[in-house]
Design a protein that fits this description.
Layout (H helix, E strand, L loop, with lengths): L2 E9 L10 E8 L4 E7 L17 E11 L7 E12 L9 E5 L5
C-alpha cells in the first residue's frame, strides 16, 4: 500500500460527553505527505480545557526517558525531550477540515 491511515472514531472528552464525539484521522503517505483529516469536531478546539492535559494539534519529534521516581518506590517518572514542533492553528480545525504537510525536496 501507499498510505497508512489511523482513525479515532467517536472520541469523547472526559466529563463532557454531552458535547458530542470527535472523529479524525492521520494519514501517512509513502511519498512523505502527512494529512490530518477532521470529520467531526463538535466543539471548537480552543474551548477544550487544558487543565487536566495539554491540548495540542500538529507534529513534533521527541524521545522519552523513564527514570526511577525518588518519592514512590517501583514507579518511574516520565520525561519527554522534544526536538522540533509544528503547531496547527486550532481555530481552523473544524468539521470536515484537513491539514496537509508536504515534505521538502531532498
Amino acid at each position: 500500500g501507499t498510505v497508512f491511515v489511523v482513525q479515532w472514531d467517536k472520541v469523547y472528552l472526559q466529563g463532557k460527553e454531552d458535547v458530542g464525539s470527535f472523529t479524525f484521522q492521520a494519514a501517512l503517505h509513502s511519498s512523505g505527505r502527512i494529512v490530518f483529516g477532521y470529520k467531526e469536531i463538535p466543539v471548537p478546539v480552543l474551548q477544550i480545557s487544558a487543565s487536566q492535559h495539554p491540548v495540542k494539534a500538529g507534529l513534533s519529534d521527541a524521545f522519552m526517558v523513564l527514570n526511577p521516581s525518588p518519592d514512590v518506590p517501583e514507579s518511574r517518572r516520565r520525561t519527554i525531550y522534544e526536538y522540533h514542533r509544528v503547531e496547527l492553528d486550532t481555530s481552523r480545525i473544524t468539521n470536515r477540515s484537513a491539514v496537509e504537510f508536504t515534505p521538502l525536496p531532498s
